[in-house]
Amino acid sequence: MAQNPPDLRPDLSNPRLERDLGTVRPGRNQPTIGMVSLGCPKALVDSERILTRLRAEGYGISPDYSGADAVIVNTCGFLDSAKAESLDAIGEALTENGRVIVTGCLGAEPDYITGAHPRVLAVTGPHQYEQVLDAVHAAVPPDPDPFVDLLPARGVSLTPRHYSYLKISEGCNHKCKFCIIPDMRGRLQSRPAKAVMREAEKLFEAGVRELLVISQDTSAYGTDWKDREAKAPILDLARELGTLGAWVRLHYVYPYPHVRELIPHMADPASGLLPYLDIPFQHAHPDTLRRMARPAAAARTLDEIAAWRRDCPDITLRSTFIVGYPGETEEEFQTLLDWLDEAQLDRVGCFQYENVEGARSNALPDHVPAPVKQERWERFMEKAQAISAARLEAKVGKRMQVIVDSVDDEAATCRTMGDAPEIDGHLYIDENFADLSAGQVVEVEVDEAGDYDLWARRL
Questions:
Q1: Which residues form the TRAM domain (predicted)?
Q2: pLDDT tens readout for residues 205-244
Q3: Is the per-residue pLDDT at 7 higher than 80?
Q4: Local confidence band at 293 (pLDDT 50, 70, 90 cut-offs)
Q5: Which fold has domain 399-458?
Q6: What is the mean pLDDT of the chain?
Q7: CATH number of this structure's domain 15-139
Q8: Which residues of 428-455 are buried (b: 16+ CB within 10 A; e: fewer)?
């Protein structure tokens, strides 16, 4: 389980929190809260919302354990390894601070948490903002001062100023056997389009230049509305987001047929919609997909990929896969490798299957031994790395726009339109970069490629 972002721990000093929010102000006994945010970007958005509400009520945000009157741990519970890391984080917060409130996906199992850590002050489930606030109020009463407690225009953000996650829905209607997200977060609940656009507009006005659209199933956005006029509301929402002037990047997109209608807009540089799709394919063999309770149409998926690239040659495709799923044979795994060879995906992540308490896949027969899972993972990643290197090498000599993430003494660290923060690669400018700053979009020419990263000169 990756923590998001990697340096947002109360035990690690965070200059961004100190700069943007301040800690306890001299001469005022201001209550302060620390936050440990674990798991995926969707959980990170929950953390931002909680901190924004607390900041509006007069709480300071502490960048370390010692300066906090209490600590909130926003947990992940998707995999057993994630649960273990969440329990470790709770234990660390209890040791370093002693006053801990737990929320997030693992909070859906309060007995599991209190069984390991009976001293926690309260446990709430995912996106239960009011219950978290109630628990904070009980532990550390607020002390608001309307003359000094002002919020930044975009609220409290745990990401750099120039990009932000935009969560458009909660929950999921899929019934994948390896996943317990619907049990923890419920069925699909799409946010009203006007509310999404209001938030996006405020973020853009506050300086955000890249919107990372997230949900459990982005392409299903709005299909839970009984009175909807459009068959696929994500199409209208994506087009409207693209009018703001920011980069718009779509994550967690299932390859429904209507997704092809987004591709011509991605091919249009003026649309604002980046030529980037993050699609969780998970596997390629039809029998494996059936055991996962996922659509078993890998051949048609290859046809879709070919059509997307025909209509938008510069599109970047990223996906994640599971190896060692129960019953996966060597033949099934080889089918996955062959499919990857043909699909030539740009960015790929891979996980070794592990049981999750409550998942239906636990009861499947023929679980794959750990050494076999490791060996298959290594073979998969070796092939994915070779594909990535070849596709990046083909970009040498090309001109493109990149967004600057950070600048230090050695280089400007940037991302192309095909790179999402924290999960994809980087592009480095190591000459003529001193005047650049985070959030700038500049034009470059690529002059070197590695396995996952690019180097370029500024134009």
A1: 393-459
A2: 888 999 999 999 999 999 999 989 899 999 999 999 999 9
A3: no
A4: very high
A5: OB fold (Dihydrolipoamide Acetyltransferase, E2P) (2.40.50)
A6: 87
A7: 3.40.50.12160
A8: bbeeebeebebbbebebebeebeeebbb
15-139 and 163-393, same CATH topology? no
How many angstroms separate the CA atoms of 102 and 112, rounded? 12
CB atoms within 10 A of CB 187: 12
Residue type, 66: S
Binding-site residue positions for [4Fe-4S] cluster: 40, 76, 105, 172, 176, 179
Task: Work out the end-to-end distance of the chain between its first and last CA atoms, rounded to an integer number of angstroms.
Answer: 39
CATH topology of domain 163-393: pyruvate-formate lyase- activating enzyme (3.80.30)
- Rounded Cα distance between 65 and 238, Å, is 40
Sign of CA dihedral 186, 3, 168, 149: positive
- The residue among 151 and 134 whose pLDDT is bigger is 134
204 band by pLDDT with thresholds 50, 70 and 90: very high
Considering only CA atoms, which of 252, 248, 147 is closest in space to residue 204?
248
Tell me the domain boundaries of the chain. Answer: 15-139, 163-393, 399-458
Contact between 124 and 131 (Cβ < 8 Å): yes
pLDDT band at 299 (very low <50, low <70, confident <90, very high): low
Q: Where is the binding site, in residues? A: 40, 76, 105, 172, 176, 179
State pLDDT tens for residues 251-288.
Answer: 999 888 899 999 999 999 999 999 999 999 999 999 99
> pLDDT at position 96, please?
93
Sign, CA dihedral 162-4-359-118, equals negative
* 399 DSSP β-pair partners: 445
The one-letter amino acid at 158: L
Q: Take residue 438 and report the two structure tokens written for it.
A: 């985070």
pTM for the full model? 0.76
